[in-house]
Amino acid sequence: MVSNAKDLTLTVIGDYAVPVERLWDAHVDPRQLERFWGPVEWPATFIRHEVAVGGESQYYMTGPDGTKAHGWFRFTAVEPLKRFALIDGFGDATGAPDPAMPTMEMVFTFQSTATGSRVQNVTTFPSVEAMEQLVNMGMVDGIKSAMSQTDAVLADLASFAAGRATEAQLLSDTQVRVSRVIRGSAEQVWRAHHDAGLLQQWLTGPDGWTMPVCRVANKVGDHYRYEWAQVDGTQRFGFEGELLELAAPYRAVTTERMADTEGPSTRNELTLTPVAGGTLMSLVITYPTKELRDMILGTGMTTGMETSYARLESVLKAA
């Protein structure tokens, strides 16, 4: 770690005995990044992480007494397996950017070495005063503590490998992140989520169900409607909602509720990230209440999703 007051920079270099692909994935997969971004005593939780030009990230670190410190990124450049650049800032209690705190420019570069790979992070501060302020807040010690966790994350291949079943992680009292690596490119997985003909081939859940109604929303403000029916005609249900945000091929945000009801809606944030082995699908679902979150999870939601995602991989393989 080297600081340069003249250039207003802080340079951090880490060398690891893993391929550069493994090191890159650890930074673009929020499940992995949150295990070493914050200091040991202040673990991070990422509720948004989009490593694409114009993409954003939102996270918070939780202290020993439950205090939360919020932060955000905005990506300005991304060259897969080589580098990404971002603006890094502090958030207020709602997670929104805190105008009272300085922002920093960070450039991460990745390269192969004779013994594995290296990541270099150069942070540029806006002023001497901002640099001194953040150093006095414990930034240097925090980085050292955070980096002490990186080796363990990189050694844990099994937890993040392609082929693992769909998993759900609680992010807060009302938020869940559903994750799975899908064998296929981000463009293929994106199209499979936005093409009615493809959706009807894979988004059918357990065997014995069909998807007779599939009206897709492909523009912000459009409404979608999906309906499923058992082959024997004994049951039928559906969901509907509105497309709120769209940034193809990596982000889509929708609302979702039971069709033809006035029931509460969830907010669903889909992010697709290229990783080794395919595309990481991350779906952050925000429920109106903890009780509804727990009720939905108790229905075996992830089991049904896994059946569909496994079918999606078969559809992509046959394409």
TrEMBL record:
Belongs to the AHA1 family. It comes from Gemmatimonas aurantiaca (strain DSM 14586 / JCM 11422 / NBRC 100505 / T-27). CDD domains: SRPBCC_CalC_Aha1-like. This is Activator of Hsp90 ATPase homologue 1/2-like C-terminal domain-containing protein. Residues 18-154, 185-316 form the Activator of Hsp90 ATPase homologue 1/2-like C-terminal domain. It comes from the Bacteria.
